[in-house]
Amino acid sequence: MDNSSAAAHQAAGPSAAPAPTVWPTLQARDAHALIDFLVEKVGFLRTAVYADGDQVAHCQLDWPEGGGVMLGSYKPDAEWCTPPGTFGCYVVTNDVDGLYERVKAAGVTFAREIVDQDYGNREFAVRDPEGNLWSFGHYPGEPAPSGPSGTV
């Protein structure tokens, strides 16, 4: 974070989160179907989709509670390429039980049913139509270290 970004973040206070600057990315054999699954069955927001017919060059899906993912069509000969079905992502939600019930009602396949973990998280995991794993829980991660070198 540069000095102006750090100052703006400090001025906003500890409860204000900065805009996402790390974006998990994935590719799909049927990107349009994956987008529909993540929007209609899980609850992501369709923010941007740039497509030419059945090929998606770029898609941004935002999570309503912050952050998001980017995805596109699988291009095995491209410089930036990840095989479909090899992605895993953890998504924070304040309403784990409500989301669990919503995706269950939508007929989503669970990789792990809802469970309370020993370390305090309540979470579940699903598999999307491409085979990727999506875990949802209320654990937001630990606070970022402070200080000039990123240490406390």
Anisotropy-based shape: globular
Rg, alpha carbons: 17 Å
The stretches of 5 or more residues where confidence is low (pLDDT under 50) are 1-14
Q: Structural class of the secondary elements?
A: alpha/beta
| Structure summary, number of beta strands | 8
Strand order of the largest sheet: 1-4-3-2
Helix content: 10-25%
Task: Report the span from N to C terminus.
Answer: 16 Å
Largest sheet: 4 strands, mixed
What's the SSE pattern? HEHEEEEHEEE
The average pLDDT value, as a whole number, equals 88
Strand portion, in percent? 25-35%
Task: Report the total helices.
Answer: 3
Salient structural properties:
152 residues; alpha/beta; four-stranded mixed beta sheet; 3 helices; 8 strands; 21% helix; globular; disordered N terminus
Q: Could you write a compact summary of the structure shown?
A:
This protein is 21% helix and 32% strand. The chain has 152 residues and is α/β, with parallel strands linked by helices.
